[in-house]
Design goal:
single chain, alpha/beta, Rossmann fold, N-(1-d-carboxylethyl)-l-norvaline Dehydrogenase, domain 2, 2 domains, eight-stranded mixed β-sheet, two-stranded antiparallel ribbon, globular, fatty acid metabolism, NAD
């Protein structure tokens, strides 16, 4: 059993909110930090959105335990208050290197000396901003998959500076919050999951942005031919368009991917259809999170 009782999560968006609930539902005291009260005000709706999935996906789901988890979560827009008692800080802010450096510098200045630092960065190398923390030996990556309660891998990736004891502690912590701990022993952008997943998503983007086929037909081809449960565009809906755009913008030399990111913004994000959490992305979804129909705006013949 680790000594990690108090967890602070920086960023309360689609994945940050899931991390908060995963830790709280599994007995940790959690503080959620974000930059505005407007963003924090969205959390009650996210809890209820997640409740339906927890109820559907977890055979031993406990309503009372979920309510107690909600009641135990604190939120704040003050960095010093957020980290004052933190044993572990998990950062889930957008995929922008300069933003992560800034945020970790602020956390490092305010957090107690004992605090362990973990980034959930999807595609950036933790070593590129480890020094910003002021304590690189206590810094590493803990990567969550979307729909954390169900797709519950916890990829723990060290940098060359990470202390062995910190690495082992975070692996044990991952198990304590009902993740399947995955030890990533050599730093690589994208860990195991995204090193496999991002090429698939990019391939779908190239096919669509190149005018080859509509999203539903690309997904159908992949699912029928391979037996996979989801195609790349259904996965984009689960990941969320904002996350996808932030990752793509880190690859500015790829003109086709940049075109695809522009389309995600224009046809999705600006229309309030940024993925499953919004009820629509490339597909519309019912209250149970099941795909209902393709969104017509994405059809190549529309």
């Amino acid at each position: 059993m680790t000594d990690i009782a108090n967890v602070t999560v920086f960023g309360t968006g689609v994945l940050g909110s899931q991390i908060i609930m995963q830790a709280a539902y599994n007995g940790k005291k959690v503080t959620g930090y974000d930059i505005s009260d407007e963003l924090l005000a969205k959390l009650p709706d996210r809890w209820e959105w997640m409740r339906g999935f927890y109820r559907r996906d977890l055979p031993d789901f406990d309503e009372k335990r979920f309510d107690e988890a909600i009641a135990s979560i604190r939120t704040t827009t003050d960095i010093a208050e957020a980290v004052a008692d933190a044993d572990l800080v998990i950062e889930a802010v957008p995929e922008n290197l300069e933003l992560k450096k800034k945020v970790w510098s602020q956390i490092g200045e305010a957090a107690p000396e004992r605090t362990i630092f973990a980034t959930n960065s999807s595609s950036l190398r933790p070593s590129d901003f480890a020094d910003s923390t002021g304590r690189p030996a206590k810094f590493l990556a803990l990567h969550f998959a979307n729909m954390v309660w169900l797709h519950n891998t916890g990829e723990v990736m060290r940098t060359e500076q990470t202390d062995d004891a910190v690495f082992d502690t975070v692996l044990e912590f991952a198990a304590e919050i009902a993740l399947e701990p995955i030890a990533i022993r050599k730093e690589t952008p994208g860990y195991v999951l995204n090193s496999l997943l991002i090429p698939l998503l990019n391939a779908g983007a190239y096919l669509y942005a190149g005018g080859v086929a509509s999203p539903e037909d690309i997904d159908k081809t992949w699912k029928v031919a391979t037996g996979a449960p989801n195609g790349p565009f259904e996965i984009y809906d689960t990941v969320g368009f904002n996350v996808a755009v932030n990752i793509i913008r880190n690859n500015p030399q790829d003109a086709t991917l940049q075109k695809f990111a522009d389309l995600l913004e224009e046809r999705g994000i600006k229309q309030g259809r940024a993925g499953r959490a919004d009820g629509a992305g490339f597909y519309t979804y019912n209250e149970d999170g099941e795909a209902v129909a393709p969104v017509e705006a994405w059809r190549l013949d529309s």
